[in-house]
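Lab notebook, bench 4. Still working through the backlog of constructs that have no structural model yet. Next entry is a single chain of 132 residues. Request: give me the structure tokens for it.
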Amino acid sequence: MDGFGVNTAYRFCASSRAVRDARRAALAFAREHAVPDGKLDAIALAVSEATTNVVLHAYRDRDAPGTFTLELDIEAGRLLIDVRDDGVGMSPRDDSPGMGFGLPLIARVADGHGFVATEGGGTWLAMRFDLD
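Model written out:
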């Protein structure tokens, strides 16, 4: 997956409060860049689901929460959102506290998405919202 020219990046502690803070940051960025109002709910939902996945799953093997980054960019009529962590990566989990709807919801509300395991562990989730 090729990197995006990041306009704005945030780093958060992977906690439940960070889900709210990341959603607010993404919506503020979208509004600053005149993203149509009709896209805002989809952006909020996708960022909430992506960051909740980090909080619930990425650092389950550690006593203390890790961190994640939220990167936001406007490029060629698209809002690009990346969520990256350096946790355990995407792996099956028998004891999952979630219902498994996060990635399917993201697929439904984003105009494009993809995820890869990052070198050294972790996950990179990229989401695209077309603005035209």
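Notes after review: The chain has a mean pLDDT of 87. The beta strands are 8-13, 67-75, 78-85, 112-117, 123-130. Flag for follow-up if needed.
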